[in-house]
């Protein structure tokens, strides 16, 4: 009788590396390691060899960076989505796509369970399990951090050493890092305490610390069609290429480093350091183009809706009815978000340079101080009489 199969969301990092032998000890199942390529830089042959050497019977690596950029990063940029008005959701955007691929492979392999290496305190356990449920509500999920006796990353390192599993984490550098096309996150170790100052040059991977950035500014041109970036510096690129190109350019200038305290889905606060160079420039340029092509009311609505969408995505609800409805609304607002945006990058700053659009709502005649055929200066008197009426009534009644 063949063994049951468990599909493991595998990264090759500390947590998932020790999960393979632990699963084999406690579930007596065949372990299928799945590492979803969402744009992280890896030696995939080495990752596969490590998974097999650790006890996995099979390894899958679906390469989905293009899908990630087009169907997840770009919709978030169109919405100007920032969790708590700050975080660009790099990890949260990748998890629903990874979950989708895990379920596809689990069905292909007739697996009875999907396992992830997320801790019981983190956001990703929610995101993975929400995503899995969206495609297979009956799939069994195994979460070792909620079951095993390993209590800390230090314990995990000891377990890996005991089992002879090669790892890069040490007790001195115990950071938990997540990389994809959009960003790299850093947590754990001395980063955890907000009281600790950290040396960014020792932590950052794709972004220069400010001390190492060029002394010359660089102007970048981004072309948008219906809110989606289609070219950088005049070169037509597919979405994944836009993001990777901007990562290189913006990372050189120290753009997109975020060190902040966030509120996790399950309630506690935590500190993380994020590198999102390309995404930061892309979102800034997109917002500037919208300032020229959207009405005041639409911009106001999008700011509110963007916060709601960011909250849904952060909490793992990418496939929810609410998120799908919001995205339909966002798509409608992007019809005329067309044009070119130039920004100047310098020492961690994104400075405005120019915006042009065939759909711009700026009218030089109307907006200027001179006379034009759409607005009569005398009309302002009646408008002011009407808009100040409530204030005059309150004053008459002694209320102000």
From TrEMBL:
<dbReference type="GO" id="GO:0005524">
    <property type="term" value="F:ATP binding"/>
</dbReference>
<dbReference type="InterPro" id="IPR048267">
    <property type="entry name" value="Arginosuc_syn_N"/>
</dbReference>
<feature type="binding site">
    <location>
        <position position="117"/>
    </location>
    <ligand>
        <name>ATP</name>
    </ligand>
</feature>
<dbReference type="GO" id="GO:0000050">
    <property type="term" value="P:urea cycle"/>
</dbReference>
<feature type="binding site">
    <location>
        <position position="176"/>
    </location>
    <ligand>
        <name>L-citrulline</name>
    </ligand>
</feature>
<dbReference type="GO" id="GO:0000053">
    <property type="term" value="P:argininosuccinate metabolic process"/>
</dbReference>
<feature type="binding site">
    <location>
        <position position="119"/>
    </location>
    <ligand>
        <name>L-aspartate</name>
    </ligand>
</feature>
<feature type="domain" description="Arginosuccinate synthase-like N-terminal">
    <location>
        <begin position="5"/>
        <end position="166"/>
    </location>
</feature>
<dbReference type="InterPro" id="IPR048268">
    <property type="entry name" value="Arginosuc_syn_C"/>
</dbReference>
<feature type="binding site">
    <location>
        <begin position="9"/>
        <end position="17"/>
    </location>
    <ligand>
        <name>ATP</name>
    </ligand>
</feature>
<dbReference type="InterPro" id="IPR001518">
    <property type="entry name" value="Arginosuc_synth"/>
</dbReference>
<protein>
    <recommendedName>
        <fullName>Argininosuccinate synthase</fullName>
        <ecNumber>6.3.4.5</ecNumber>
    </recommendedName>
</protein>
<feature type="binding site">
    <location>
        <position position="185"/>
    </location>
    <ligand>
        <name>L-citrulline</name>
    </ligand>
</feature>
<keyword id="KW-0963">Cytoplasm</keyword>
<keyword id="KW-0436">Ligase</keyword>
<feature type="domain" description="Arginosuccinate synthase C-terminal">
    <location>
        <begin position="175"/>
        <end position="393"/>
    </location>
</feature>
<feature type="binding site">
    <location>
        <position position="123"/>
    </location>
    <ligand>
        <name>L-aspartate</name>
    </ligand>
</feature>
<keyword id="KW-0067">ATP-binding</keyword>
<comment type="subunit">
    <text>Homotetramer.</text>
</comment>
<dbReference type="GO" id="GO:0004055">
    <property type="term" value="F:argininosuccinate synthase activity"/>
</dbReference>
<dbReference type="InterPro" id="IPR023434">
    <property type="entry name" value="Arginosuc_synth_type_1_subfam"/>
</dbReference>
<comment type="pathway">
    <text>Amino-acid biosynthesis; L-arginine biosynthesis; L-arginine from L-ornithine and carbamoyl phosphate: step 2/3.</text>
</comment>
<keyword id="KW-0028">Amino-acid biosynthesis</keyword>
<feature type="binding site">
    <location>
        <position position="87"/>
    </location>
    <ligand>
        <name>L-citrulline</name>
    </ligand>
</feature>
<feature type="binding site">
    <location>
        <position position="123"/>
    </location>
    <ligand>
        <name>L-citrulline</name>
    </ligand>
</feature>
<dbReference type="InterPro" id="IPR018223">
    <property type="entry name" value="Arginosuc_synth_CS"/>
</dbReference>
<dbReference type="Pfam" id="PF20979">
    <property type="entry name" value="Arginosuc_syn_C"/>
</dbReference>
<feature type="binding site">
    <location>
        <position position="274"/>
    </location>
    <ligand>
        <name>L-citrulline</name>
    </ligand>
</feature>
<dbReference type="GO" id="GO:0005737">
    <property type="term" value="C:cytoplasm"/>
</dbReference>
<keyword id="KW-0055">Arginine biosynthesis</keyword>
<dbReference type="InterPro" id="IPR024074">
    <property type="entry name" value="AS_cat/multimer_dom_body"/>
</dbReference>
<feature type="binding site">
    <location>
        <position position="127"/>
    </location>
    <ligand>
        <name>L-citrulline</name>
    </ligand>
</feature>
<feature type="binding site">
    <location>
        <position position="124"/>
    </location>
    <ligand>
        <name>L-aspartate</name>
    </ligand>
</feature>
<dbReference type="Pfam" id="PF00764">
    <property type="entry name" value="Arginosuc_synth"/>
</dbReference>
<feature type="binding site">
    <location>
        <position position="262"/>
    </location>
    <ligand>
        <name>L-citrulline</name>
    </ligand>
</feature>
<comment type="similarity">
    <text>Belongs to the argininosuccinate synthase family. Type 1 subfamily.</text>
</comment>
<dbReference type="InterPro" id="IPR014729">
    <property type="entry name" value="Rossmann-like_a/b/a_fold"/>
</dbReference>
<keyword id="KW-0547">Nucleotide-binding</keyword>
<dbReference type="GO" id="GO:0006526">
    <property type="term" value="P:L-arginine biosynthetic process"/>
</dbReference>
């Amino acid at each position: 009788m063949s063994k049951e199969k468990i599909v493991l969301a595998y990264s090759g990092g500390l947590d998932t590396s020790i999960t393979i032998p632990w699963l084999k000890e406690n579930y007596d199942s065949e372990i299928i390691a799945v590492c979803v390529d969402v744009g992280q830089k890896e030696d995939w042959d080495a990752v596969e060899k490590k998974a097999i050497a650790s006890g996995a019977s099979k390894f899958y690596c679906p390469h989905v960076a293009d899908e990630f950029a087009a169907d997840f990063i770009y919709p978030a940029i169109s919405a100007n989505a920032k969790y708590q008005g700050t975080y660009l959701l790099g990890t949260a955007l990748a998890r629903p796509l990874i979950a989708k691929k895990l379920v596809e492979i689990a069905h292909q392999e007739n697996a009875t369970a999907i396992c992830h290496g997320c801790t019981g305190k983190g956001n990703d356990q929610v995101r993975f399990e929400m995503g899995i449920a969206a495609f297979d509500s009956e799939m069994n999920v195994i979460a070792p951090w909620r079951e095993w006796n390993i209590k800390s990353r230090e314990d995990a390192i000891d377990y890996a050493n005991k089992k002879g599993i090669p790892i890069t984490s040490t007790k001195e550098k115990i950071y938990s890092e997540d990389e994809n096309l959009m960003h790299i996150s850093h947590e754990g170790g001395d980063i955890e305490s907000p009281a600790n100052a950290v040396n960014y040059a020792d932590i950052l991977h794709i972004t220069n610390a400010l001390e190492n950035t060029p002394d010359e500014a660089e102007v970048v041109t981004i072309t948008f069609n219906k809110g989606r970036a289609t070219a950088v510096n005049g070169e037509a690129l597919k979405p994944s290429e836009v993001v990777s190109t901007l990562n290189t350019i913006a990372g050189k200038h120290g753009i997109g480093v975020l060190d902040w305290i966030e509120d996790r889905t399950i309630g506690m606060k935590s500190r993380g350091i994020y590198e999102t160079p390309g995404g930061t420039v892309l979102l800034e340029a997109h917002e500037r183009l919208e300032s020229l092509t959207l009405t005041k009311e639409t911009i106001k609505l999008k700011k509110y809706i963007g916060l709601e969408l960011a909250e849904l995505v952060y909490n793992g609800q990418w496939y929810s009815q609410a998120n799908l409805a919001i995205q339909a609304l966002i798509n409608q607002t992007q019809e005329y978000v067309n044009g070119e945006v130039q920004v100047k990058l310098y020492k961690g700053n994104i400075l405005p340079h120019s915006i042009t659009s065939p759909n711009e709502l700026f009218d030089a005649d109307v907006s200027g101080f001179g006379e034009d055929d759409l607005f009569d200066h005398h009309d302002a008197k009646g408008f002011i009489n009407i808009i100040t009426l409530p204030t005059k009534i309150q004053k008459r009644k002694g209320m102000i």
